[in-house]
Amino acid sequence: MCVRRCFKGLSCARFCENIKASYKIALAALFSRMLYPLLYPLVNMVILIILADFGEASAAAYGVGIRIEFLLLSISIALSSIIPPVFGQNHAAKQGKRSGKIIRLSMSISFIANSVIYILVYFSAEPIAQLFTSDLEVQTLTIQFLHILPLSYPCFGFTLIISQVLITLHQPFKSLSLVIIHQLILSLPLAWIGVNLWGIMDLYWGLLCANVLTGIGVYFYGRKLSFVIEKAVS
To answer: How far apart are CA 230 and CA 51, in angstroms?
Structure first.
């Protein structure tokens, strides 16, 4: 009886269209979520191949750096993980002001936390490098990595958070475009230009520029999106 009431007035064709649309959104979101974990190692592999021409120490130092990177970004990663349930629940409940504040608050917490982490890492880069290797050349290059690249993590955190917001808003292709712009259009070309024109340190600066440029654009987009949501949902 309950099933009849639920489907009363709903044609078979309309029901199939709804199912098809739901699957399309779900698959697009799944693809977007899967692409970044796949694309990130692929980009790092290409960078390691580029660095291999400059010696084993360069590739080893970068390998150490990207392992430390996940630890340094742990707060931003955690925030991006709780965005779907917390933001999604408030947005579905038509809590526009609360939804907008969640976006802005998440970005603020991420920026402040990553800024503090960078200061701590900058002054403790040498002992951190010594924990991973005893080779002096690898230590020196690892210290350079820790002095340069984490400076961009406050901006990189914006990309992680807004990417999840877009997926929660059923806009996975916009989230996917952020990943492609950041990793393929900016990170790889700027890293290649830096290392080939100037040297290994400038590869780090190239990656930093990619994180900062993407992050700045995403920050302003995220703030605008938060205010649009507040007005539209409230």
So the answer is: 46
Supply the pLDDT for residue 84.
85
Q: How far apart are CA 100 and CA 161, in angstroms?
A: 13
DSSP 9: T
CB atoms within 10 A of CB 35: 17
Using only C-alpha atoms, the chain has a radius of gyration, in whole angstroms, of 21
**Each residue of 56-69: pLDDT tens digit?**
888 899 999 998 99
* Cβ neighbour number for residue 216 with a 10 Å cutoff: 12
- Show the 3-state SS of 139-181: HHHHHHHHHHHHHHHHHHHHHHHHHHHHHHCCCHHHHHHHHHH
Look up residue 90 and give its amino acid. N
Residue whose C-alpha is closest to residue 191's, from 148, 162, 154: 148
Backbone angles phi, psi at 95, to 5 degrees: -95, 75
Q: State the burial class of residue 137 (Cβ atoms within 10 Å of its Cβ: 0-12, 13-18, 19+).
A: middle
What whole-number percentage of the chain has pLDDT above 90?
A: 46
Residue in this structure with the two tokens 């390691």, named with its chain if needed: 48
Question: Exposure of 40 by Cβ count < 10 A (0-12 exposed, 13-18 middle, 19+ buried)?
Answer: middle
Closest C-alpha to 50, from 154, 208, 196, 213? 196
Considering only the C-alpha atoms of the chain, give the largest distance between any 2 of them, rounded to a whole number of Å. Answer: 76
